[in-house]
Amino acid sequence: xxxxxxxxxxxxxxxxxxxxxxxxxxxxxxxxxxxxxxxxxxxxxxxxxxxxxxxxxxxxxxxxxxxxxxxxxxxxxxxxxxxxxxxxxxxxxxxxxxxxxxxxxxxxxxxxxxxxxxxxxxxxxxxxxxxxxxxxxxxxxxxxxxxxxxxxxxxxxxxxxxxxxxxxxxxxxxxxxxxxxxxxxxx
Length: 187
Hints:
Blueprint lengths: L2 H18 L3 H11 L5 H45 L28 H17 L11 H12 L5 H29 L1
Helix pairs in contact: 2-5, 3-4, 3-6, 4-5, 4-6
C-alpha cells in the first residue's frame, strides 16, 4: 500500500467515525448549520462592522472586494475539484453503505469549497477588523462549525475540510494584503 493510499484509507476511516457520531436529535441543527442561508446574520454583522469602521465609500470597496474574494475562492475550489475528481463520501461505493447521508450533493469532494470560502472570509474579516473590535477571534467559530457540518451530513471527507481550510487561510491572508494595497490606491 502506497503512502497516498494509506492517507486515503485513514481519511475514510476517520470520516466514518466522525459521521457516525451523528444522531437524529442533532440532524436538524447540523442541516441548518450547513445551509449557507443560516449564516446571513453573520454576513450582515460583517457588513455592519465594515461600514461602521470604514464609512460608505471604503465600505462599498470592501463589499466589492469581498464579493470578488468569495467568487475567487469558490471557483478555485471548483477548479481543484474538477482536477482531482475525488468522489464525495455519499457517492463512494467503498463506504456509502456505512455512513449517514443527510444531504445529497453533486460534483466532487476534494477540497471543500465551503471550508475554503468560509475560512477565507473569516481570515479576511478578522485581519481587517481585529484592531477595531475585541473578540473578532470568535469569527473563527463559523468556519469550524460550517466545515464539520459537511462531514456530519455526509458530503466531505476530513482531508477535504483540512485542505480547504488551509487553502482558505492562505487566500484570506494574501487577499487581505492585496486589499490594503487597493485601499491605499483609492485613498
